[in-house]
Design a protein that fits this description.
With 192 residues, this protein is an alpha/beta fold. It has a single domain, classed as Alpha-Beta Complex (Maf protein). Helix content is 31%, strand content 23%. The protein is built from 5 helices and 7 strands; from the N terminus they run βαβαββαβββαα. Strands 1, 2, 3, 4, 5, 6 and 7 form a 7-stranded mixed β-sheet that branches. Helix 4 crosses helix 5. The model has no long low-confidence stretch (mean pLDDT 94).
Length: 192
């Protein structure tokens, strides 16, 4: 089975390819494919927008996801806007720095990473899968692995390390994306 990923993010594509390798031949999205504007107000809406755009072009089963980071002290911000928290074109580092700065006087550093997957199967039917992990935001960036908010997110189910201090295999056993993808894989197993 071939699954078309609806992402041009190389880090995300690499992570998903590893998570799905046993179950499907995963195709990355060509760099020439136009970006889908994420106009949704929820992770589900944005994942659906991306999945529909890619499915319409390639007519292959399509996997799209959207991830948000909800911080308790910021009333759930950055949420669905996590990738552009520090503004349009912001780097991962820019977003992390802004979040750490916003929390500098906060003792409540609880946060949740959430991933929603929209999978469009060969018949065009949409399926949704959600994964979440709770954690806290570190006082400063730590570690060189991963991407996005990984250097400042410490999962409560871990050993006190940020995602960026973990190996890819350790992160992929407990991350929000891994949890959502595990639910997706369970669905795939029923389709064989």
């Amino acid at each position: 089975m071939t699954i078309q990923l609806a992402t041009k993010n190389a880090h995300k594509a690499e992570e998903l390819t590893k998570l799905l390798a046993k179950y499907a031949d995963v195709q990355s999205l060509p760099d020439t494919f136009p970006d889908t504007e994420e106009t949704g107000t929820t992770l589900e809406e944005n994942a659906r927008l991306k999945a529909r755009a890619v499915y319409a072009e390639f007519k292959l089963p399509t996997f799209a996801d959207d991830t948000g980071l909800e911080v308790a002290a910021l009333n759930g911000a950055p949420g669905v806007y996590a990738a552009r928290y520090a503004g349009p074109g912001a780097s991962y580092e820019d977003n992390c720095k802004k979040l750490v700065k916003e929390l500098k006087d906060q003792t409540d550093r609880r946060a949740s990473f959430i991933t929603t997957i929209c999978y469009i199967d060969a018949t065009g039917t949409e399926h949704f899968f959600r994964g979440e992990i709770k954690g806290i935001i570190a006082f400063e960036a730590r570690g060189k692995n991963g991407f996005g908010y990984d250097p400042i997110f410490i999962p409560v189910d871990g050993d006190g390390s940020t995602f960026a201090e973990m190996s890819a295999s350790d992160k992929n056993t407990l991350s929000h994306r891994a949890r959502a993808t595990a639910k997706f894989v369970e669905y795939l197993k029923t389709q064989r």
